[in-house]
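Archive entry. Fields below.
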Amino acid sequence: MFDCVAVVGATGAVGLEFLALLEQRGLPAKKVRLLASARSAGKRIPLKGNELTVEELGPDSFNGVDLAFFSAGGGISKQYAPIAAAAGCVVVDNSSAFRMDPATPLVVPEVNPEDVKAHKGVIANPNCSTIIMVVPVWPLHRANPVKRMVVSTYQAASGAGQAAMNELEQQTRDVLDGKPAQPKLMPFQYAFNLFSHNSDLYENGYNTEEMKMVNETRKMFHTEAINIAATCVRVPVMRAHSESINLEFTNPITPDEVRAILKDAPGVKIVDQRSPQHFPMPIEASGQDDVLVGRIRQDISRNDNRGIEMFIAGDQLRKGAALNGIQIAELL
Amino acid sequence: MFDCVAVVGATGAVGLEFLALLEQRGLPAKKVRLLASARSAGKRIPLKGNELTVEELGPDSFNGVDLAFFSAGGGISKQYAPIAAAAGCVVVDNSSAFRMDPATPLVVPEVNPEDVKAHKGVIANPNCSTIIMVVPVWPLHRANPVKRMVVSTYQAASGAGQAAMNELEQQTRDVLDGKPAQPKLMPFQYAFNLFSHNSDLYENGYNTEEMKMVNETRKMFHTEAINIAATCVRVPVMRAHSESINLEFTNPITPDEVRAILKDAPGVKIVDQRSPQHFPMPIEASGQDDVLVGRIRQDISRNDNRGIEMFIAGDQLRKGAALNGIQIAELL
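PREDICTED_STRUCTURE:
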């Protein structure tokens, strides 16, 4: 039982999802405190029949708090997570601030729950695209090590927060009304369009989102021997990310073996019905805890039966963020 | 100079695009006849300052016609293309009916223009996803043979015709109004959602659209030695398909070499600006003749420098269908 759980960034899309899950799963906490910027302070948010008032985040916010879930951007995490940890609070951080810090465990409970134990006050939640990918890939990797992956993502507006979801909606209304789309948060028209994920680019031409999928997967799998090439794309979907994944295994593997492994894998739901066709879709993944996996087939571009293709969809706000954080808290 | 050019399926999205291009490029034809089903017969369509009346397609439609562009589905092509050819007309067929027929050339003018010569009355236009892919891949393949490709598509509503574009628009309006989306032509909600391309599945789990990308590419490249694994997905974009392409070459190759080859390649426009980021997008590909190519980078999942990744976008109605047909006619 936690005495007090704090949610930093409580009014954001992930923060609100975290609160909804807290209510739904009944995380044992005597008290919940909502923390956000001065702009959101004073807002009232319903929780378990009560209304909680959002407090302004400050250096004294973590006295008496034993667990804090941070989802307010890397800058806030960098500034306040050490303060919270020093106050004796365990931080589950949804930002990228500490993910690649060697002293900070990066955890997906279905993949590397034991890493939680080594925490020194902060546990990092991986990037949403990474989480959704590793949930089905890890059990396959354990059975037959994955040597190489080629991934293309179809990322929803929710990945950039509530403001991006609002922007997609407003732009779509405008375009349907014959008005020009007005990109604000997003760099380009989002309505009825798609564009390369607008995170910063590395010298090698890959963007930050793509390199997170490489580096975070290697950290959680505890191996540098898995090679990943990712292409991250934002599509005009409201919520839930999809990914087209091409896997190269160490040994031959069949689609039936993949299905047998994934059938019992935690956090995975196979949606792979060929007649009538029914495969993973973001609207069906939305609001779900499980990552949907389908289009499981032998990669016909290889002649050694070491290739598998699949298509997945997972709720970016839920398993891709808030749910994973709750699950980490449950491990504690 | 053609005496008479007929457009079969003149009222469809591709047919109308064909007429727009005919006007724009000034294909030398003394007369243009518009053919469609009984339902569309009598409709009037403007062309070069005149109005043409749509005639009902029938067995006698091709007397005196020397070139016919078919885009009314495989069933119509199977039934009427042989009749047209027997009447002395050259058919450029946009359906899949004859594409893999060994006696029918399958042509993208930037790739295999010389194959046109072998026609016996029918020349097939490849599938739109295939056309858009092969335009940039062919010049690379000529310089350094492509051994294997992994492709994931982001296909627009236009690929399923005007009715699908209308359905995406109507569903989006309904969802924004809080009403349920009503899939009619499409098997699932299309608004703010995506789903696996709803063409029939083969035994191997790949769908028809995906196998077209494999088989049509091999036919046009005149090699069985190119291996392709494709995942085809419909995204809620109105027009222009995008594709994430991972290429494995026979010999080492650098992104700079790829850019140098593509800079002068016909039908290709490099859109690969890293700061500020500007890469291929469907809204910018729409209405354009060229296939936009960007995100050109060395595949970091390989250690032999034989891998390249890129992201492309091309107008499915234009280069993916009508423009390619016009270009074939121009070869004649």
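CURATOR_NOTE: The mean pLDDT of chain A is 96.
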